Amino acid sequence: MEDRGFDLEGRLDALVENDLKRSLTPADRVAERGYFAAPSGGELPVLDAEEALVFASNNYLGLTADQRVQDAARQAGATVGTGAGASRLVTGDTLVHRDLERLLAETKGTDRALAFSSGYAANVGTITALEPDVIFSDERNHASIVDGCRLSGAETVVYDHCDAASLRAALAERAERADSEAESWLIVTDTVFSMDGTVAPLGSICEVAEEFGAWVMVDEAHATGLYADGGGIVQAEGLEDRVHVQLGTLSKALASQGGYVAGSDALVELLVNEARPFVFSTGLTPMAAAAASEALHLARHGDARERLWENVAHLRDGFESMGFEVPGESQILPIVVGDRDDALALEAGVRDRNVIAPAIRPPTVPEGTCRIRVAPTAAHDRDDVVTCLEAFQAAGTEVGLL
Ligand code: PMP
């Protein structure tokens, strides 16, 4: 088998040889900047300003309004400061960041993790820092992956959505005209696709990657905190040792703002040195880091995941027994109606019945596959779920879809 992986150690050695290698401040020095203790208690709102039920948020575990998460943010603001004040490599590094990164690495089963100021920055920064020769990208990957591919200047090959056979064909075809054995190849995919509710076939993707010596990078933005023990799909499928880069956002289930990358020590060291959105951007606000840490702790050890998945099962059953088609296998429930006007009429119909769930249209989804994206959270109770189902039943009948 060819090795088309990435020589991160070699690049780090080159930085050392040229006296360019940088490191984050040692933790004992970061500690001098102060720390805080975390908290308890909490109510979870699911209503918008007009008191309509929102079934369209990425706040999947309902933790943005949890008192414990809010207290963590408040205390970090009060004791560490509201802003990092500088890039992490300058003076913006705090123990709050380190705590979050340690917890992320532990959850993800990796050596280390690194916080970015957004998931967007994490994708762009990681793909460009890796400097791949060739990228294989799922056709429905998030825009921040697409932008990372473009900005990296790598040859990018797009394969069919969640289709490991299409991926394999793309690698096989490219292998026939590989310039040299020294090429580095990166396969990149979302794990849970936010508009489709589909889940990437990660096990098969890893098999293809291993056959061709490529690396696998996953974006777990819509999975982090929700699957096995508060991890993502990588943890649910036990693929920690086969996926090279695990990336995600702190802004969805983790109820905060920011992004992260988890992986080997060498990967994180490379990103500290070469990921431009990390090096040249102010560190994540300590308040966001502290809120995300507390939310991750609650995702792993609280009951929010259980409540979310109960709501998902109840809604999926209800929609399917009404006769709606609900593809995918995640917490996102896309009700595919096809026609744009039907989707807009359904959105308006449920809105009249006090439920907010937006119609998704091209260019976000392919022509003829307009849908309503229903996203329950752990903060919805049984009555909320019943209200949602009744609204769809009535509006769907009115629009002539049922
Ligand atoms: N990746 C995916 C799959 C996303 O859905 C998003 C956010 N919509 C991002 C990355 C970007 O994350 P952030 O909002 O933290 O920039």
From TrEMBL:
It catalyses: 6-carboxyhexanoyl-[ACP] + L-alanine + H(+) = (8S)-8-amino-7-oxononanoate + holo-[ACP] + CO2. It holds the Pfam family Aminotran_1_2. It comes from the Archaea. Transmembrane segments: none annotated. Keywords: Biotin biosynthesis, Pyridoxal phosphate, Transferase. Its cofactor is pyridoxal 5'-phosphate. It is an enzyme of class 2 (transferase). GO terms for molecular function: 8-amino-7-oxononanoate synthase activity; pyridoxal phosphate binding. One of its GO terms (biological process) is biotin biosynthetic process. InterPro entries: Aminotrans_II_pyridoxalP_BS (IPR001917), Aminotransferase_I/II_large (IPR004839), AON_synthase_class-II (IPR050087), PyrdxlP-dep_Trfase (IPR015424), PyrdxlP-dep_Trfase_major (IPR015421), PyrdxlP-dep_Trfase_small (IPR015422). Residues 53-391 form the Aminotransferase class I/classII large domain. Belongs to the class-II pyridoxal-phosphate-dependent aminotransferase family. BioF subfamily. Homodimer. This is 8-amino-7-oxononanoate synthase. It comes from Natronococcus jeotgali DSM 18795.
